[in-house]
Design brief:
By secondary structure, the chain is of the alpha/beta class. The protein has a single domain (2-159), classed as 3-Layer(aba) Sandwich (Uracil-DNA Glycosylase, subunit E), CATH 3.40.470. The protein is 36% helix and 18% strand. Strands 3-2-6-7 form a 4-stranded parallel sheet. A 3-stranded antiparallel sheet has the order 1-4-5, with helices on one face. Strand 6, helix 5 (113-127) and strand 7 (132-134) form a beta-alpha-beta unit. Helix 2 (41-49) crosses helix 6.
Length: 168
């Protein structure tokens, strides 16, 4: 059983919560979200907001908070083989109440189908908030080009009142 090693990123100004499933091997080693060099999450955020997302966890955290984004994962602990979401079992969900109790969230977005399925199963009954499933930024989701990801994710940010921050 692996335990999630990365604390959530959020503050009272966060308006959108983005949830992944569970950190990859590379993310666990880097001790920060989306640490695999081929994951498109950070390049996508940079494209959406028209500025570099940063290199270090501290810079990336500042970037997220500056753009009113909270970031965490659905799973607090699970069994997983490598980084494959398809192998996840024996899930213990994260407690999202600190985020929901602090931030005035306009939307919950899930990064891919696994995160969405797990959110709906374990957390939606507690939060009473539906989530919007966005296409995964994982390199395994190769059929979604960077242009298509930017369009899909940008639309959700526009819908949730963050369009004044976007550069696309």
């Amino acid at each position: 059983m692996l335990t999630h090693p990365i604390p959530p990123v959020f503050d009272e100004h966060s308006r959108v919560l983005i949830l992944g499933s569970f950190p990859s091997v590379k993310s666990r080693a880097a001790q920060f979200f989306y640490g695999h060099p081929q994951n498109r999450f950070w390049p996508l955020m940079a494209a959406l907001f028209g500025e570099p997302a940063g290199e270090t966890p501290k810079e990336k955290t500042a970037f997220l908070l500056r753009h009113h984004i909270a970031l965490w994962d659905v799973i607090a602990a699970c069994e997983i083989t490598g980084s494959a979401d398809s192998t996840i079992k024996n899930v213990t969900p994260n407690d999202l109440s600190p985020i929901f109790g602090t931030a005035n969230l306009r939307a919950v977005l899930t990064n891919g189908k696994t995160a969405d399925t797990l959110y709906r199963r374990y957390l939606e009954p507690q939060t009473h908030r539906s989530a919007v499933c966005l296409p995964s930024t994982s390199p395994a989701n190769a059929r979604w080009t960077m242009a298509k990801l930017t369009e899909a994710w940008g639309e959700e940010f526009h819908k949730n009142g963050l369009d004044i921050l976007l550069k696309v």
